[in-house]
Amino acid sequence: MEYVDPAEGRPRLPQEYVDRGQLKESGFYIEKNLIGPATLASLKGLAKEDAVAEEGRGGVRNLLDVAAFRELAESAPLLRLVRGILGDEAFIVRGILFDKTSNSNWKVPWHQDVTIAVTNRIDADGFGPWSIKAGVLHVQPPANVLEKMISVRIHLDDCPAENGALRVLPVTHRQGKLGQAGIEAEVSRGVPVTCEAKAGDALVMRPLLVHASSPSSAPNHRRVLHFDYANVELPNGLEWRERQVFSFRELVERG
Ligand SMILES: O=C(O)CCC(=O)C(=O)O
Prior knowledge:
With about 260 residues, the chain is α+β, with helices and mostly antiparallel strands.
């Protein structure tokens, strides 16, 4: 049973989730107006209308290889937000552009985000299985790594429930890696929240929060820049594919 607004008779984001305090409690919240209209306009130009349809899988990975997206991920507003949560050592580790259109509409079943991108395959306790996504080596780390990560999903388009908004199961981020049976048990007893957002808003969430995504029934784009940040080194010489730490002075200079 989904949360449905009694007055509107449709799923809606309850206002309590527009509050950073919910991150600890529920595993997510919406940061309103993180990106202003001018930046938004230039990002929309970069996230080309057909980029995702061309890739054919609903998402463009390795986004940090594009300088403008890397600059955004490491811009002062984003780093301030992320470091307010993960501390001053936090760094960007991955970027993906997701889109849904009538040409490229898709859904994702209930899951947790349990893979990270790394440079090299070195066996370490609790790491595996390994996989390749868009030519990049990925591995599932143990829960204690995923618990030190945060995802920031910046909406480039308005995203009401009808436009394929992410659905989440509050509080499920606290239970480590659940596995398929554990996820199904949570889905059967939980009340999903539909994370409606406006263009410029960001959904800030823990990767272990159980989430799903429905197809869009709107004729519009639903572009989301998904950035993952971490604050922990990997063991045994394993390395994050992306890793950069700016000093506080650099951060201030960036405005
Ligand atoms: O963008 C979406 O709707 C789904 C993305 C997703 O499930 C994920 O990032 O794991």
